[in-house]
Amino acid sequence: MGEGAAPQNFVMFHIGRxxxxxxxxxxxxxxxxxxxGEVLGDGDAQGGFxxxxxxxxxxxxxxxxxxxPIAVIRTRMSQAGPEKCYGFGMKFYQIRxxxxxxxxxxxxxxxxxxxxxxxxxxxxxxxxxxxxxVAQKRxxxxxxxxxxxxxxxxxxx
Length: 157
Hints:
This protein is an alpha/beta fold. The chain contains 6 helices and 4 strands; from the N terminus they run E-H-E-H-H-E-H-H-E-H.
């Protein structure tokens, strides 16, 4: 960011298994950027807010009250501070789970200062499928953190 330039706030749309967690971690290493994960996620450690589907409820996940997603993002943006570029990630379906459609969501985030819209695309669809199957076999453990030594997993396609 140049001196005196306004922060270029952004939203990073993605599908699962596309590298969004790695990119978020890398962006957060820059002192002028604060990048949240999925702030409208499923009630995990990211503090998500969407109403859960019957499938997730059947898995024993807690039903969360729907909240105004624009207000949630505005609050997170203000917590990052005015001098930092603020970004967050989300999956497209999280808009629907927060009782919105894409056009009003985009207008809403533009009004609060989001100026960049990124879409992560996973080139190798087979690797995305295999990655999801491995996570499923591991009890929906999607990420391997530093120091973890995961057991090898065999999947059948």
